[in-house]
Amino acid sequence: MGEVQIHAQALVSPEAKLGKGVQVGAFAVVGSGVELGQGCVLHEHAVVRGPAKFGARNVFHPFTVIGGDPQDHTYRGERVELAAGDGNIFREYVTISRGTTKGGGTTRVGNENFFLAYSHVGHDCQVGNNTLFVNGATLAGHVTVQDYVTIGAFSPVHQFCRLGRYAYIGACTVITQDVLPFALVVTERETKCFGPNTIGLERKGFSAERIKTLQRAFRVLLRSRKNTSQALAELRKTWGDSADVKELMDFVEKAERGIVK
Fold this sequence. Notes:
This protein is α/β, with parallel strands linked by helices. The protein has helices at residues 198-203, 208-223, 228-239, 243-253, and strands at residues 5-6, 11-12, 17-18, 23-24, 29-30, 34-36, 41-42, 47-48, 52-54, 59-60, 65-68, 81-84, 89-90, 95-97, 106-109, 114-115, 120-121, 126-127, 132-133, 138-139, 144-145, 150-151, 156-157, 162-163, 168-169, 184-185.
């Protein structure tokens, strides 16, 4: 590891401790009471506040706020901490709060965790090793996440819940109870297509005739009892001269994951 590199436009507290090879980019902020282990990298505009201690090779991407005050009404400025291990990646806009005195005083993050953009770890949470927080995954306070857990995009976890080892939480799943180790937990999805976006199409200049044709085509494709191949055959026969219906049929024929009905 080489020397510490601090950009001239970064703000680093004289009370912070920086290990060998730490890099601090432009407009990044390292607060008082922060300890960064060797090889940590703060990209431009990253913010790390303390008291907080980090191991080696952690990477903080732009606009992260790691070690911020707990988001708790009872917090009154007490000394509370964040402790994180090695090799964690904090992508853009990730936020992790320090602990509270009533919750033990320390939020903990282990090693080799990957926090994608906009994910959040609340006060007093205990996060293990090798976890994956997909974009917008959020933990309320006092949550325990064991090793190798994956939390899908936009999935909130209620306070005091525990997520067992190797559990997988699917996207947009609300967790209000403990999740078993090795479990797959996914909220059922009933996404439906309700026909053409008539108001939007009107605003884009579609004529009443074009919209009416699309409404009829969607009715055959989505609401008839025909399978997709039969529906396409009827569309081709009845409205085959419509450029809009041709575009619709071409899109369906090229679908590799099916279509939302």
